[in-house]
Amino acid sequence: MKRSLSFAIFLGCFVAACGGGGGGGHHVVGPVEPIPPTPTPDEPVVPQIPLATGSGVKVLPEPKAPFFLITSYGAVSQGPALTNQAAINAAVDAAAAAGGGTVIVPSGDFKSYTIRLKSNVTLHLASKDSILRAAVPKTGAAENDGGNYDAPEVNLFVGLQDQGHSHWANSLIYGVDIENVMISGPGLIDGSYVNASGYTVNVLSGNDPGEVTDRTKPYDIDNATDANKLRNGNKAIALKNVKNVVMRDFSILNGGHFAIIGTGVIGWTMDGIIVDTNRDALDVDASQDVTIRNSVFNSLTDDAIVLKASFGLGRYLATQNVLIEDTTVSGYDAGSVLAGVYSTQKLVATDACGPTARIKLGTEGTTGFNTVTIRNVLFDRSRGFALESVDGAVLKDIVMDNVRMKNVSSSPIFIRIGDRGRAPVTGISSSTAVSPSNNVRLDDTGWILPNLPEYGSYPPVRYIPSYTTNQSVAIGGANSANFSIVNPTNPTRLNANSINPTDLLFANAVGVGFAQASDIKITNVTIENADPRYPILLAGLVDHPIENVYIANVSVQYRGGLKMEHAIEQRQLNQSWAYSSYGAAAATQNIPWLSNTFFAKKEALLPRVSWNPSANGGLGAWENDPYNIPEMPREYPEPSLFGVLPAYGLYARHVNGLTIRDVKFSFMVEDERPAVVLDDVDGANFDNFAADIKSGVPVFVTVTNSKKREVDREYVKDLPYKTTTVNNLTVKPELPQQSVTVDRPAPGTPPDSLYTYPTAPDTTYPYSYAVASATYPKPLTVYRPSFNDITGTTARENYLMLFTVSAKAPGGGTLTYSAESLPQGASFDPGSGMFMWTPAAGQAGKYTVKFTVNDGVLPESKEVPLTVTP
């Protein structure tokens, strides 16, 4: 895997700089706050978006006396977990009773269950050998440490957000309604252990306990017959309604569903921490005045830093004034960053998209986001920057500057307005059931609140239809392409409890208006080695566009190698991949080479084709229609939800005000798709724009669509259509352009009196791939060869240094190896992959050898550090 900057060195810079400041300038490619040039009359104006100031803490506090040593209260390294839990909590209580102080975890390995933080208390992991380890719960575990974590607390508003955002107590460390707390290092919080076979076992669960069925009922966790009441901890650190928090210098390994989650935290500073984990590394939820700096967050299977805006607090509190700077997010195998290995054996996350590990705003977006600044950040082996407003809230004033992305596994930049409408709406009954029946929604009934005073009043603001999705689709020549779409005969359902029970448009009451996303500035970004399936993607909604996006001084290198037929067919081409993730037993995972059915669902999986009744001698035939793409407003907002798009560099739909300035798109292998597709975009300015392009393919495609309907009403029969188009586009005339018109509804739209032709294949109008999936060639630029785990090696002078370099290629084929920068006297055998070196006297020092593997498509490289001691 190519790395022009050693991640190990990068990590070391952050650790060394954890006391505060600017992180040593390790990858800054320009000034922190660039001064925009003075525009000439012909140049676009640079938007003046307010920058976040964060917590305002510049000098980190130190642990303060009095000090409370946990061993003085009975804690024992390698001792019983319940004894340690009692001792640590007793020390916390003593510090709080003293008016504040520092609880010291000395060198040793201390198992514990839930530790309850209190105001004015610091929890200090005193040395690098200080380990606070998650104890194995007795509920649901054959081998355990004799106790359980605290139960998830009662939350009247469960169901309005994912379960993990409704509870905090079921954690290793948690604090609620407290202030002035600190967790400091340089020790380790470990949510796992290594078993007798040498494999890592995660103790803090990556899943949530099942949710209660009644909002007012507590978890009956001692009822062993109720499988939903397992008392597993699933968070390393959880905070709710907390003021003035500092987290500094420590590390977390395998922290569960959320290694760190804070909801309703006001004034939060994180500096110099390392999180290397199995799911979300850091969740900042409905919190304000937050600074994250000089830190590393590694999570292959979920987001590295994710800002949420849930309703878990039971009130609207926007996430705002968040500053993220001088930080790395990455997606290496869990545990391998802290170990210095940076393993790449696992190719995709649980959702079958590539390593996650990104910075994201969303998905939980009920209460909104504003004033977020990200600068001087490295994304490494991760998805790109994601901005998602899909639950009716406002997302605005977002700045990203001076960023480098390497090995990008999804859209480098993803901005999405959706319409899940996940927000409270008051029902017509007083039922406290999490999913009440016979109420104001047919879908997502967990969002309905009881009509009781303690829940407040959230009257419906608007209504949307409910669709019946039970029409099977089978594609000829496919190994696995069976899925369901909206029923073409009876697509919609009636709700007898709606304000207008006979109107199909009123099946689901929504408690908020449409989401908004605006005023977004992205500058000085270098993006290398991006997945060819996913361009920069800006996707608003009909009549609800993304507004005012400024992207400048950005270069994006895609791997390329895809064809327009991939964007037409939406083929499900899957493969089983066997791997051994770092510290874990051998496993397998499914890797999708093209469309990923975890996110692309229903109509998004249909081939992008339209029926031409005049073709085939008047018998009719399916014809390619690659620019006719379903809206999918209610689906989970992930770039892969739209399948493979017909642009390799930028796809923008429903956008008002788009400036692309000093931007270059390139591909490593020729791609057959246009660089840019614009659909319903008003006011786009491409200034000093360049893009690689295949001969004969346009750089720009602009789309006019005559068959659009209002959001959420796409599949309601006989509703009038409207036309959308591209207006006020400014591009250089020498850049090849093509205008296309889509005059058919999106695939899967039920035929009606306004459009009578079929819109999806069926037995009457069949569709088959020209080449069956069983023999269809894999696009080898999607998944690349992966090196075996090679750690930085140390040897003494006159002693042999020996290791083997190998790689696995998911697409198969013959691999050839080479090495560069071999030290004097070292050798490398390309046939066996054997590296051999006996350093001579006087060769003490540090070296870096670059190994390259080539599958005939693209070379992949890995730099291995070597150290020789006297």
Strands, helices and their partners?
Layout: H1 7-16, E1 67-69, H2 81-97, E2 101-105, E3 108-112, E4 115-116, E5 121-125, E6 130-134, E7 173-184, E8 188-190, E9 192-194, E10 200-202, E11 235-248, E12 251-253, E13 258-271, E14 274-277, E15 280-285, E16 288-293, E17 296-299, E18 305-309, E19 319-330, E20 359-365, E21 369-382, E22 385-389, E23 394-408, E24 413-417, E25 425-426, E26 448-449, E27 462-464, E28 469-473, E29 483-486, E30 508-510, E31 516-530, E32 536-539, E33 546-560, H3 564-569, E34 574-579, E35 587-592, E36 609-612, E37 621-624, E38 650-669, E39 676-691, E40 700-708, E41 722-724, E42 727-730, E43 737-742, E44 786-787, E45 793-796, E46 801-804, E47 807-808, E48 816-820, E49 827-829, E50 834-837, E51 845-854, E52 859-869
Parallel strand pairs: 1-2, 2-5, 3-6, 4-7, 5-7, 6-8, 7-11, 8-12, 11-13, 12-14, 13-15, 13-16, 14-17, 15-18, 16-19, 17-19, 18-20, 19-21, 20-22, 21-23, 22-24, 23-31, 24-32, 25-26, 31-33, 32-38, 33-38, 38-39, 39-40, 39-42, 40-43, 45-52
Antiparallel strand pairs: 9-10, 27-30, 28-29, 34-35, 36-37, 40-41, 44-47, 46-50, 48-51, 49-50, 51-52
Compute the number of strand runs: 52
Q: Which percent bin holds the helix content?
A: under 10%
Strand content: 35-45%
Poorly predicted runs of 5 or more residues: 1-41, 224-228
Cα end-to-end separation: 31 Å
Structural class: mainly beta
Order of strands, main sheet, comes to 13-15-18-20-22-24-32-38-33-31-23-21-19-16
Largest sheet: 14 strands, parallel, barrel
The number of distinct helices, counting runs of at least 4 residues, comes to 3
Work out the radius of gyration: 28 Å
Mean pLDDT: 92
- Shape assignment: globular
